[in-house]
Amino acid sequence: MTGRPALSGATEVAGVIGSPIRHSLSPALFNAAFAALGLDWAFLAFEVAPGAAAGAMAGFRALGLRGLSVTMPHKSAVAGLADRLTPAAARLEAVNSVYWSGSEVVGDSTDGAGFIDSLAAEGVDPAGLSCAVLGAGGAARAVVVALAGAGVSEVVVINRSPEAARRAAALGGDRARTGPPEEAAGAALVVNATPLGMGGDPRMALDPALLRAGQVVVDLVYHPLTTPLLAAAAERGARPIGGLGMLVHQAGHQLRAWTGLDPPLGAMEAGAAAMLEGSRFSG
Known about the structure:
The protein is an alpha/beta fold. The chain contains ten helices and twelve strands. It is globular, with a radius of gyration of 19 Å. 51% of the residues are buried.
């Protein structure tokens, strides 16, 4: 059964909080999923100012929202407001999804699992691979943890701030360390977890001369779908993989926790891609 029922007094509501948020892709992803599943659910974006996460979470509880996505700048604050954290969220001290478990509000982080799933969908198994992660922010930290858990041979974290790189690498245990950009040349898997290249930005997080044939190069930026880094990777014979897959798969994990149903990933990707074609989003 497909096609979401008309909105009514029985419609269940989920949403995303962040700032800025009005052009988020999350409504396109999740409303496409609800329609494909025939669920009487609706997903909305809520602009929540920095520092106001506690009020938003109180509203989540009081209104009985069925699920909540969390984006910047609230991921750390919400981690301290949930009743319980999943192991992934506790390790990262950050939450991107909130769901109910009985009367408990659980905070989760689905970015790492979504990243590994997106690799699998492309036929890439990171086990045993040498990896380089560019960046040390929230996305980079989630990727470092996920890659270490997937059994890579090592993860080299490359970042302009040495201290931030050390903090990110520490999350990967004995499989992760910091290193200079030149080490990306020897990695089998290179992941850009910085925002460089987004929305027409011509900059790249790595000198393309360091890329080589046989590498897999993933850019977590998904607008444009082909970033300058991915174009350079293809030119040098590497295999480019865009960031839309991770976005869809991490959202799929959220939907499964909220509804108990398997996510319709194809419909979710199509919904996000349709919005991207119009370029009306903020990331």
